[in-house]
Every structure is written in structure tokens, then in C-alpha cells.
TrEMBL record:
Coiled-coil segments: none
Pfam families registered for this protein in UniProt: Ald_Xan_dh_C, MoCoBD_1, MoCoBD_2
Organism of origin: Kribbella ginsengisoli
PANTHER family: XANTHINE DEHYDROGENASE (PTHR45444:SF3)
Record-linked NCBIfam families: xanthine_xdhB (TIGR02965)
Domain of life assignment: Bacteria
Family annotation (Gene3D superfamilies): Aldehyde oxidase/xanthine dehydrogenase, a/b hammerhead, Aldehyde oxidase/xanthine dehydrogenase, molybdopterin binding domain
Domain Aldehyde oxidase/xanthine dehydrogenase a/b hammerhead per the UniProt entry, residue ranges: 27-133
Name listed for the protein in its UniProt record: Xanthine dehydrogenase molybdopterin binding subunit
Length: 785
């Protein structure tokens, strides 16, 4: 067992503690970025001028009329940028564009004494456009050959030979939608300039260091002149990994030019129409099975809808390609990936980061092909699971593959699946207009950033003379409980009670050059960095304590604030006594910690290597009931067993599993992004701009019975205290809901009916699926899926 994963007895990690800010959240006392405005004097407010066209050249921008509006102080345009007029890391996202690339694109920004003054000023700005042809759908972009970024190719084995010899070959297409993040707190920033010209920006961002970099290059200053702080976020889900940079830069630019604090907070409509979403995908595929239902070959082309600029589309596509296998061994694989350029918001990171899109393709294939092969879908999935010693198509060994089977078996047993399947058959036989179904799906999700360089983290830990401890780390808190886990890691590493540890807000002047809190790596990276810093301090304190106790430093033990030797009757010192003594011995009581994930190597061009530290596994069983008249449905019961290693904080992890599952179910069944595809004046306009038109999962969509269990005896060697990531993997457990809906729709037709189900599987899509099932002939087809 590695020193990083070794967990002491009676440790604070592993305790089921509530979220460290839970009481503040429910009482309304928790501060978010925009709450700081009322504590700041003389604030200006920012409002965007948005394009009414999906694609248009800006011929003239007349800002003078805005200054006639009372309260307007400044209109920010490209002429005001002292540095680089770009808010993207790929240098393809002009902060002030000369060409509107999507409906809602911000052309310029108005600063006002009040928000209303800024809004009226924005209405007064006159923009002359030359409308240009636009591509709104991914199919239009494919037809036009309009792609961006670098395409990728992943190949293993001989696909053509395998398909030629396979006794069962199917082919098809599958297009599925993206997803709006719809975090409770919209994008916001508050920028101030001090007397020395230092720029301080409070930002709701998952990536403070990159926000700092973008602000610096827009303003033409060095990074050290900019400090970015993130108190906490009211949700992020990946939507605040890249998107906040430009908004923070606008606020910083306004503050620099006016000398006054500038607040930028998007309202809901602005946030939905201006920010990127989960990438929708188009896929085409051919798949081969042998006579025993084993996958023998997959040939697929994945086209991601990237929107108007690259953002993170390239790594999202790469992760989708690396996850098209999900939990299944496919001996021969060929996947081509490309990114469509469309006149929509620039699509970005979203929980799962392309992994869900790739995994959805193979789950859709298995769900469609199972009836054609004459197999129960559960059985078809199970017989294709990865086995120990198997490797992925990109050459990475699938360590702990047996955990997939362990999760599956536990769900079967604890959820009494076989008995319920019999009951469902009896129910369906006696209810012609209501059908039930239960489906099980697995998850195998790789943990680490695609880009190896991002797999590093820093921490700064201070021990004060009174024995209290302050920790700083580079991770951000968006409600996921990262700070809770980091407090537990620090207390465990130092051997002190949790009450002695406090955590400071995330700031770029405390821990520099941090990676985004993303890729489910927040606890892995920052926890290891904190542990490293704490161990440096503890090693020094062991020398001090050993001298006072008259024993060797290596025999000193710290536990629950008490310092003692190895023997039971050893004399003891309090933590505070040792710290006090260390100070008077001039021993350093603070440390900077660092961690880099070992064992990663990845050739992005060849799509070969070991890009992930480990795989997280899980299995879900979902039971649904579908109404044959309307396609409406009820999620009756969900049972989950998920692998989080040795949990750092079980309550936090169970909450993440529940939340991730529900968010995944929303993407797959409810959340239907609709852009205007007509040739009319509103072409390219997002029609689903609010909760009134974009349906989010709520309490009414929660399963009546929701059982979540953590896989036991799942220690992960080489990860902090034996734990595993939990942020993203549970989202994909929701595939079981969509597959259950497919099976319930098929139950309206004859046995062996294969249903092609839309995604999201809204009640409308389910109705069209079950309506086609009713019309199917009695003999199952073996043709194309």
C-alpha cells in the first residue's frame, strides 16, 4: 500500500460529515460573488449589447447614443483593450468581435451607475449588421464540411476483417442533444483596482488561474498584477471552467478604465444565451457480434457540435472517443472524431467532459441490437464486460475490472432484480396501456485530465502559534463538498481534531498556477498536495516532540490532538504544546505542498497510452412505467452501487452520486435544447431560454425509491487515503433510465421489437418510439439497427 493511500486508524477522513457550508447555505448566510457588491462602494454595473443574428458582420457600431442615457458612464469596445482582444485559450474568441458568430453574441458592454442605466444604455447603442449565411445544426455543418480544430483517429485491431467475418452486423446513426448547465448562480464577477494598480477580481470560476491569465493578457499586464479569488460557486458543472474568463476580463477592463469597481452579473436569459453547453453529438456506426452475443468490432464516426469556437471541444472529443467502449471489451475498434463549427454558443465542459457522449453511443447500440440478437439487454451487457488483464482500445490496462462485476452482482442481489423482472412481465401482460421495464447499465470512467500537465496541484498550510491551522489549496468549491474533504484530509494528516482546521477562499496569490477544479480530480490532486504540506510540517514537529518525550522522532505519533510515543504507557503532549515548543525552537510551522499524478502518459496524436490514473466503476438499475397514450413516464425505483474507493467523506459522496444521477437523467430524458432552425429572422435563436421552456429535473422526477450503496473493500492504491473520484462518474449511471424507457416502449410491440429512441427521451420521443413498436410485425428483424 502506498504512503499516499495509507489511512491511519481513527482518522477524520471516512467520517460521514455534513457539507462544511451546509448551515450557511440553508440559512442564506453563505456569500457568493455577487453578494460582495453590497459591501463595495461606488460600483458600476455592466450590461451587454447582444447580436440578434446567428451570423453577421458588424458594419458600424455607434455608441454615442448610449452616453445620452442618464447614468451611463462608459461603453467598452475593442478600441479600449490595451492588451489582446481575446478571451479564449485558443485565441479564437474575440472579447469584442467584429463578426457576430451566434444569436446573443456580446458585441460591446455598457457600464452604468445602476443596472437599469446600463440596460437602457445598451438598448441605445446602434449596431449596423450585414447578415451572413449560418449553420445552426450539426447536420448542416457536416453537409457543408465546416469543421474546426484537429480531428482524431483511434484504431485497434482489424475492424474491416472482423466485420467481414462477424455473423451479425448492424449499422445506424444516432444524434443526441447537449445540455444547459443551469447552475443556480449565473456567471458573475466583481473587479477592483487598488492604489498601486493591482487588479483584484472576485469571480465565480472553476479555474481562477486561467481567469487570471486571460485578464492579464486582455489588460496587457503580467499575471502577478492580477489576483483572482473564488469564495464559492452556486454550481458549476463544467460551465464555469472556461466561460467566466471573458466576463471577469470585462469587469477588470471596466475597473481599469474608470477607476471604479465594476460588477458584471448575467441574468438567467443572458447566461443561457451567451454561455456554452454540453456538446451535442452526431454518430454513425457499424457494429459486429459473434453468435454468442460478444462484440467483435466497432467502426464509428463521432462529430461533436463545437459551436462557434473551439473552447474545450478538442479534449471533449478525445475523451468521448476514449470512452466509447464504456465497460465493454471490443477487440477491434476504429473511431474517427471531428468537431463541427456551427453558429451557436461555443460548447464547453460539462460534467463527464465528453465521456457521457462516447458511452451513450455504445449503450444505444447495445439497447437497439439486443432484441435483434434475441438477447435480454442485461445479459448482452454483462457478457461483454471487461475482464481482468483486458486493455482498452487505446492500450491502457483495465485495472480492477472485477469491480464492474462486483457492482453488477450487488445490484442484482440487493435490488432483487430477477424477482422484479418476473413481476414486470406479469404487469405488462395484464396492462395493455401501461408498461414497465427495468434496465441495468454499467459505468467505467477514467480519472485524470486529458492533458497530462494539468494533473498537478499545490497547497499552502499554516500552523499558527496557538495550534490552529489554516489551509489554502487550488481547488474551488461549487457545492460538491471539496472543501469538506480537504478539511478532513488536513486534520487526518496532522492528527488533530477537525475543529482546529480552517480553510481559506481559493486565491491565485496564495497557490499559483493551479488547474481547473474539473475532471473529477479536485480531491485527488488538492488532497494529495495538502497531505504533502501537512506531512512536511508533521515531520518537523516529530523532531520537536521526540526531543521533549525523550524518544526517536520516528516513534512519535499524532492522533486527535494528542502526541505520544508508540507504547501504550508513553507520556503525552498536546498538539498545542508541541507547536508552542516548535515556535520557540525556530522551527518552520508552514509548508507549501505539491502533487503530480504519476504514471500518466498519452500521445494525443496517436491516441495511445495511459491517460488515466484509474477507472471508477458503478452500476445502476432503473425501473420505469410508461403511459401508452401519452408517452409520459414515472421513474419508480433506482438502485445504485458505486465505487468511490475508500470514501473520504461518505455523506458527500452519496450526495454526489444522487445528484450526478439526477443530472444525467435530466440530460437523457428531459432537457431539450431547441434552437430556431428556420430561415426566418430568429434563425439561430435559442428558444429554451428559461426554466419555463427548458425542463429541469425536480422533486417530481425523483424516483419513488432511491437506494445508493458504496462498493465495499474498494481501496485505491496510489490515491489520497485510498479514495476515488466521485464528481462525474455517477452521471452516466442514468443510462439505465433511458434504456428502461426503451424497453418499456418496446413492450408495447411484439417480442423482439427494437426501438430507436430519441435523446433526450422526452415523453414525446417515448410516445413515437412506442407507437412504432405497436406497428412492428411479429417477427423480429435481423437487418440494420
Amino acid at each position: 500500500m502506498s504512503s499516499l493511500s495509507l489511512r491511519p486508524e481513527n482518522s477524520v477522513v471516512g467520517l460521514p460529515l455534513p457539507h462544511e457550508s451546509a448551515a450557511l447555505h440553508v440559512t442564506g448566510e453563505a456569500l457568493y460573488t455577487d453578494d460582495l457588491v453590497i459591501r463595495t462602494h461606488d460600483v458600476l454595473h455592466a450590461w451587454p449589447v447582444q447580436s440578434p443574428h446567428a451570423h453577421a458582420r458588424i458594419l458600424d457600431l455607434r455608441v454615442k447614443p448610449a452616453y445620452d442615457v442618464p447614468g451611463v458612464v462608459r461603453v467598452l469596445t475593442s478600441e479600449d483593450v490595451p492588451g489582446v482582444n481575446d478571451a479564449g485559450v485558443k485565441h479564437d474568441e474575440p472579447l469584442f468581435p467584429s463578426e457576430a458568430m451566434f444569436h446573443g453574441h456580446a458585441i460591446c458592454w455598457v457600464l452604468g451607475e445602476t443596472l437599469e442605466a446600463a440596460r437602457l444604455g445598451a438598448l441605445a447603442v446602434e449596431v449596423e449588421y450585414e447578415e451572413l449565411p449560418s449553420l445552426v445544426t450539426v447536420r448542416e455543418a457536416i453537409a457543408a464540411g465546416n469543421f474546426q480544430g484537429i480531428g482524431r483517429h483511434l484504431e485497434s485491431g482489424d475492424v474491416e476483417a472482423a466485420l467481414a467475418s462477424a455473423p451479425h452486423v448492424f449499422e445506424g446513426e444516432f444524434e443526441f442533444a447537449g445540455q444547459e448547465h443551469f447552475y443556480l448562480e449565473t456567471n458573475s464577477a466583481l473587479a477592483l483596482i487598488d492604489e498601486g494598480g493591482q487588479i483584484f477580481v472576485q469571480s465565480s470560476t472553476q479555474h481562477p488561474s486561467e481567469t487570471q491569465e486571460i485578464i492579464a493578457h486582455v489588460l496587457g499586464v503580467a499575471n502577478h498584477a492580477v489576483t483572482v479569488q473564488c469564495l464559492r460557486m452556486g454550481g458549476g458543472f463544467g460551465g464555469k471552467e472556461m466561460q467566466p474568463h471573458g466576463f471577469a476580463a470585462i469587469a477588470a477592463l471596466g475597473a481599469t478604465l474608470t477607476g471604479r469597481p465594476v460588477r458584471l452579473r448575467l441574468n438567467r436569459t443572458q447566461d443561457v444565451t451567451m454561455t456554452g453547453k454540453r456538446h451535442g453529438f452526431h454518430s454513425s456506426w457499424r457494429v459486429g457480434f459473434d453468435d454468442d452475443g460478444h462484440l467483435v468490432a466497432l467502426d464509428a464516426t463521432l462529430t461533436a457540435d463545437g459551436g462557434w469556437s473551439l473552447d474545450l471541444s478538442e479534449p471533449v472529443l478525445a475523451r468521448a472517443m476514449c470512452h466509447i467502449d464504456n465497460g465493454y471489451s471490443i477487440p477491434n475498434v476504429r473511431v474517427d472524431g471531428r468537431i463541427a463549427k456551427t453558429n451557436k454558443t461555443s460548447q464547453t465542459a460539462f460534467r463527464g467532459f465528453g465521456g457521457p457522449q462516447g458511452m451513450l453511443v455504445i449503450e444505444d447500440i447495445l439497447g437497439r441490437c439486443a432484441p435483434k440478437l434475441g438477447y435480454d439487454a442485461m445479459e448482452l451487457r454483462r457478457r461483454n464486460f471487461y475482464q481482468p488483464l483486458d486493455s482498452t482500445p487505446y492500450g491502457m490496462p483495465v485495472r480492477h475490472a472485477e469491480r464492474l462485476e462486483a457492482c453488477w452482482s450487488e445490484v442484482l442481489e440487493t435490488a432483487d432484480v430477477e424477482r422484479r423482472k418476473v413481476e414486470i412481465e406479469e404487469f405488462n401482460a395484464s396492462h395493455p396501456h401501461l408498461k414497465r421495464a427495468i434496465a441495468m447499465t454499467p459505468v467505467k470512467f477514467g480519472i485524470s485530465f486529458n492533458l497530462t500537465a494539468f494533473n498537478q496541484a499545490g497547497a499552502l498550510v499554516h500552523v499558527y502559534k496557538d495550534g490552529s491551522v489554516l489551509i489554502n489549496h487550488g481547488g474551488t468549491e461549487m457545492g460538491q463538498g471539496l472543501h469538506t474533504k480537504m478539511l478532513q484530509v488536513a486534520a487526518t494528516s496532522l492528527g488533530i481534531p477537525l475543529s482546529r482546521v480552517r480553510l481559506a477562499p481559493t486565491r491565485t496569490d496564495k497557490v499559483p498556477n493551479t488547474s481547473a477544479t474539473a475532471a473529477s480530480s479536485g480531491a485527488d490532486l488538492n488532497g494529495a498536495a495538502i497531505k504533502n504540506a501537512c506531512e512536511q510540517i508533521r515531520t518537523r514537529l516529530e523532531q520537536v516532540a521526540g526531543g521533549k518525550l525523550g524518544i526517536g522522532a520516528h516513534d512519535v505519533r499524532f492522533a486527535d490532538g494528542v502526541v505520544r510515543g508508540l507504547t501504550f504507557d508513553s507520556p503525552t503532549l498536546s498538539w498545542e504544546e508541541v507547536v508552542h515548543a516548535a515556535y520557540f525552537q525556530r522551527v518552520q510551522l508552514w509548508a507549501a505542498g505539491f502533487y503530480r499524478t504519476e504514471g500518466l502518459h498519452w500521445d494525443a496524436n496517436a491516441m495511445r497510452g495511459e491517460p488515466f490514473k484509474y477507472f471508477a466503476y458503478g452500476v445502476a438499475a432503473s425501473e420505469v412505467e410508461v403511459d401508452g397514450f401519452t408517452g409520459s413516464y414515472t421513474l419508480r425505483q433506482v438502485d445504485i452501487v458505486h465505487d468511490v474507493g475508500d470514501s473520504l467523506s461518505p455523506l458527500i459522496d452519496i450526495g454526489q452520486i444522487e445528484g450526478g444521477f439526477v443530472q444525467g437523467a435530466g440530460w437523457l430524458t428531459l432537457e431539450d435544447l431547441r434552437w430556431d432552425e428556420s430561415t426566418g429572422p430568429n434563425r439561430g435563436r435559442l428558444a429554451t431560454q428559461a426554466a419555463s421552456t427548458y425542463k429541469l429535473p425536480s422533486f417530481s422526477e425523483m424516483p419513488e425509491v432511491f437506494n445508493v450503496r458504496l462498493l465495499e473493500k474498494a481501496h485505491e492504491d496510489g490515491a489520497v487515503y485510498g479514495s476515488k473520484a466521485v464528481g462525474e462518474p455517477p452521471l452516466m449511471l442514468a443510462f439505465s433510465v433511458r434504456e428502461a424507457l426503451r424497453q418499456a416502449a418496446a413492450a408495447f410491440g411484439p417480442a423482439g421489437t427494437s426501438v430507436d429512441l430519441g435523446c433526450p427521451a422526452t415523453p414525446e420521443a417515448v410516445y413515437w418510439g412506442l407507437d412504432k413498436a405497436r406497428a412492428c410485425s411479429a417477427s423480429p428483424s435481423t437487418g440494420g439497427a
